Structures are given as structure tokens and as C-alpha cells.
Amino acid sequence: MPSLVEPIAADSPEIAAIVGIRRDIHAHPELGFEEVRTADLVAQKLTEWGIPVHRGLGRTGVVGVLRGARDSSGRTLGLRADMDALPLQESNTFAHASRHPGRMHACGHDGHTAILLAAAQHLARHRDFDGTVYLIFQPAEEGGGGGRVMVEEGLFEQFPAEAVFGLHNWPGLRAGQLAVSAGPVMASSSEFRITIHGKGAHAALPHLGIDPVPIACQMVQAFQSIVSRNKKPLDAGVISVTMIHAGDATNIVPDQCVLEGTVRTFSLKLLDLFERRMRQVAEHTCAAFDARCDFVFERNYPPTINHAHEAEFLRRVACEVLGAENVLEQEPVMAAEDFSFMLQARPGAYAFLASGDGAHRDAGHGMGPCMLHNPSYDFNDALITPGANLWVRLVHEWFAAPRRHAAP
Ligand SMILES: [Zn+2]
Ligand SMILES: [Zn+2]
């Protein structure tokens, strides 16, 4: 067992100050790759606490390098928080509501940043571990792929973490409960755009043209049969056509029809199958009707897949910090997360930290539930202490446990 590190007290002046930082970040939300103020604040605090910082990976990314009092083992560990906000108008009117119209911390990344800062401050004061912690503050999780960019720009070459961990606050369950499991926990997310090139005609003389609209209808139906007939019933996957655009008049057969939508899977194997079958269906349906087809399929985020050993390690630490009765199985969700790119590069795990039913919100919150991406959402500050204590304990136990992976 490692020496038991003193946990952070929820009513300490340190946590009060971190809550202030969290609310300050909430009031000044910045979109992906524009997190200049937030990154300055993070870097300033880490520096203040004696943690050297590296800046510029992924444009606004910040990596703090926190060395233990002993640093003879060569052991390393990465902890990651995201910093970006969403393009959303906040409906809350409490004091720390967004000062920027059309921008809002509606996903709680302000809170994830605060949790990692609280852990960093405590670890900087209690360095009785043998190893180096990389504190990874990443930009642009919300669709920008900041995690991917940091990895591509050499995150794990410059900061060779044996493993990497992340968490997301998760509305609904009782505040402070944590869900973590091995295997897929969030889906891959891809987009497609299919242009059916037909031949315009008078709608009363359709035999003189090639009508792309019935071709599109056939295609949408056939895509659903990929889900029901081509994939294994136990594999989860979604194909949703969410946009169909064609035509401008009731008496004209349009020249073309454009279908767009999203695909979600928990494995790359199923994603490969979906892409291959959708392309076949699109091209052959068009060929059958003498039309031509452009098929574009863009893979955004891969599935987020927790590694077995790291998920179990985090689960065990969470049982010690939060109590076994508060540690739950992680039910996979079809949303996507760019921590997936870090988990493709390094072993690690990603957990959901439950944030409760929204009763924590100050007076002046808008209508609606406290759901992620909702305009009346606010991060639950009560999660900062348990979240930070989880990271602190994880660090101490990680370096006390035998090494499993060589650093990259
Ligand atoms: Zn989000
Ligand atoms: Zn998020």
C-alpha cells in the first residue's frame, strides 16, 4: 500500500478558491482552440504552485509537469481535463452566468478543469510519490478534436505517460457516484454526405428525366436494413439520415438530392462494416436507377474504449475514495468523446462522475433540467473535492503499484 495521502477537505480554503476559479471560467467561456484566457489562467495557477508548464500543443493546450519528491522510478501518468465551451446562449442569470453572448460552459468542462487544478494544487503540496504526473488541459473537445490534435502534435512523445485517465461529469445519478467499466463506453461518431445526381425534368414528364427523390427514399430504407440485417444484433450501432435536401418547385423533378446524417458505433469493426455497406448501397442503388452518386464518409471521433487494467485500477481507487456503494457499472452511451484519441495512443480509462439532479444550481437558473448541452445547465461544484481526491489517490496508488507498461 502507498502512504495514505491526506485527502482534500471540501470545506478548505483551497477548495473555496478553486470554486471561485470554476465560476470565473464559467463566466468567461471560450470555444474550441480559442481557450486563451482559460489556458492563461490554468498556466498561471500551475506556475504559482510550482508546477512547470508547457504550452501550445493543440494551439491552446497546457501540460503541467508535476514531479514527485522522489523521481527515481522513471514512472509517469497522464491526467486529462477539457477546457472548451459550447456555442449556446446561456439562460441562467446567476452571478457567474456567461458574460459572452452565444457561448456557454454547458458541458461542465469548466468543472473538469477545476477538478484537475484542485488535484494539481494538492499534489504539488504532497509530493510523496515517486514519478511524474502530466496534467493535460486540452482544447476543443466539442467537435474540434483537440485531443486528436494534441496527440498528433506529439503529446505522448513529449510527455510519455504510461497511462492516461479522464472523467466527465454526468447528470442523473446521485452526486459523487462514479461509473467506470472496461470496454467501450462512448461511441464512434462519423458523418456522411451522399449526393445523388439525377436528371431534371418537368414533373409531368418524369420519364424524360432521372428523379433522385425516389432513389433517396430507397436508399434511406436500405440503410436501415444494414442496421437490422448486416450487423450482429448484439452489436450496438446507429445510422441516422438527418437531412434530405432536394427540389424547389412542385412541378420540377430536381437534378439532385443530398442526404446527410450520422453514424455511431462502439467498435471500429462495425464502423468499417457500416461505411462499406453504405457505400455499396448508395452506389448500387444509384446505378440501378441510372443515376450517379458521390459518397463522402467522414470519421470524426473513434469509439472511447477503456482498457481493462486501467478501468479496474480506477474502479478500485474510486471504491476507496467514494465508498464501494458509490461505484457503479458504466453504461455505454452513443455520444462521442475525443479522449478516445488518447486511449488509442495510450492505455487508460474514462469515467463518469455523477452530478445529481440539478438541485445544486443557484437561484436564477433557466427553465429546464440540468442536462449537458442544456442552456440552464451549471456544473455541480460539490464534485470538485471528490473528483480531485480521486485523481490524488490515483496518482499515489499508480506509482506504488508495479509498472505494467513501458512509457512510449
Ligand atoms: Zn459536450
Ligand atoms: Zn463534455
Outline:
The chain is an alpha/beta fold and 408 residues long. The protein has helices spanning 13-27, 36-48, 109-125, 146-152, 155-158, 212-230, 268-288, 308-322, 339-345, 384-400, and strands at residues 53-55, 62-67, 76-82, 132-138, 164-170, 178-179, 183-186, 188-197, 201-202, 237-246, 252-253, 256-265, 292-301, 304-306, 327-328, 348-354.
Describe what you observe in this structure.
This protein is of the alpha/beta class. The chain contains ten helices and 16 strands. It has helices spanning 13-27, 36-48, 109-125, 146-152, 155-158, 212-230, 268-288, 308-322, 339-345, 384-400, and strands at 53-55, 62-67, 76-82, 132-138, 164-170, 178-179, 183-186, 188-197, 201-202, 237-246, 252-253, 256-265, 292-301, 304-306, 327-328, 348-354. A hairpin with a 6-residue loop joins strand 1 (53-55) and strand 2. Helix 1 runs antiparallel to helix 3 (109-125), helix 6 runs antiparallel to helix 7 (268-288) and helix 8 (308-322) packs across helix 10 (384-400). The radius of gyration is 24 Å and the shape is elongated. The model has no long low-confidence stretch (mean pLDDT 96).
Instruction: State the order of secondary-structure elements, H for helix, E for strand.
Output: HHEEEHEHHEEEEEHEEEHEEHEHEH
**Coarse structural class:** alpha/beta
In terms of DSSP E residues, the strand content is 15-25%
Q: How far do the termini sit from each other?
A: 26 Å
Query: Could you give a short account of the major beta sheet?
Result: 8 strands, mixed
Q: How much is the radius of gyration in Å?
A: 24 Å
Question: Which descriptor suits the 3D outline?
Answer: elongated
In what order do the strands lie side by side in the largest sheet? 1-2-4-3-5-16-6-15
Helix-residue proportion: 25-40%
Uncertain segments:
none
Summarize model confidence as the mean pLDDT.
Answer: 96
How would you describe the oligomerization state of the chains in this entry? single chain
The total count of strands amounts to: 16
Which distinct ligands sit in these coordinates?
A: zinc ion
